[in-house]
Amino acid sequence: MISTNITTESLIRGRFPITLTLECTRKTDGTHFHNYTQMWYMLSGTMKHTIGGITYTQFPGSLTVVPPYTRHNIDTAESDDTPVYVSISFTDNFLTDSGYRYFSFTNSRVRFEERNIPEFSELSGSKREIGDMLARRMHAEFSKHYDMDYDILRELLVEFIKLFCITEVNTVDITLPRERANAVAKAVAYISQHYTEKITIDTLCKISAMSRRVFTKSFKIVTGLTVVEFITFLRLDCARYYILFTEKSGSEIAELCGFCDKAHLSRVFSSNYKMSPTEFKRQNLSKAIILDREQAQRWDWTKSETKTTK
Known about the structure:
CATH topology of the largest domain: Jelly Rolls
Largest sheet: 5 strands, antiparallel
Structural class: alpha+beta
Number of domains: 3
Number of helices: 12
Strand order of the largest sheet: 1-7-2-5-11
CATH class of the largest domain: Mainly Beta
Helix content: 40-55%
Shape: globular
Low-confidence stretches: 1-7, 288-310
CATH superfamily of the largest domain: Jelly Rolls
């Protein structure tokens, strides 16, 4: 196990509001629970994680969330490859004391800023790359031990959590027939998975089984946005991560996030954020701290001297 000197024991005793370890080991834990939230993000290999009696198989890009006092256990002994994962443990007040709306409930979903964080979720494509980058950056900051910057660590954790938050369409209080609202929810789910690709209204109409006129009107009622506005919101959020946490060029970010080219990205970004991507990064330098080469090599688990136990 690769870890820092600050352990979860310190968290339990209230000395630190967050701990973070990078683990590369085979082991089987007994069933247990904690008085704080734990998140397990998989970087490579696989492991089984049983939470509240439900067993999930984690693979690269997947996250499991364990609320306080929820029984769970992990099993990495049967993994074909030695699993590598980041374990993040924190108390609610680490976020709430800074004004974030964060709630964790025993044997239930965790909520952040009025959005749910599922017990199990996964990232793919560009979002997985961003998840890996944020995990790397959090570990690098936490590894400074007593010199870590809690504000930077908190902001990184918030950005990480946002990747996994889901917006559930409320089909109860909407002034639409239930069937139509549920159909729009299917379209929203499809867009959330494919927003970096070309999406046509015809495709969404087919998914929701509605005519173009009925679908566009229903979509606006349910989401408060037009289809184009909704897709643009998701693409801009994707671009924001790359602008803050990578040194990728504008052309690369545009391609990864579904924009036509660098000029298109810059035009849409400036229209929505009232500043260019370059200015946005400059004004958010506290978040936009990129690992230098030495830090990246130090974090690279493939170069670490670890002992594999069975």
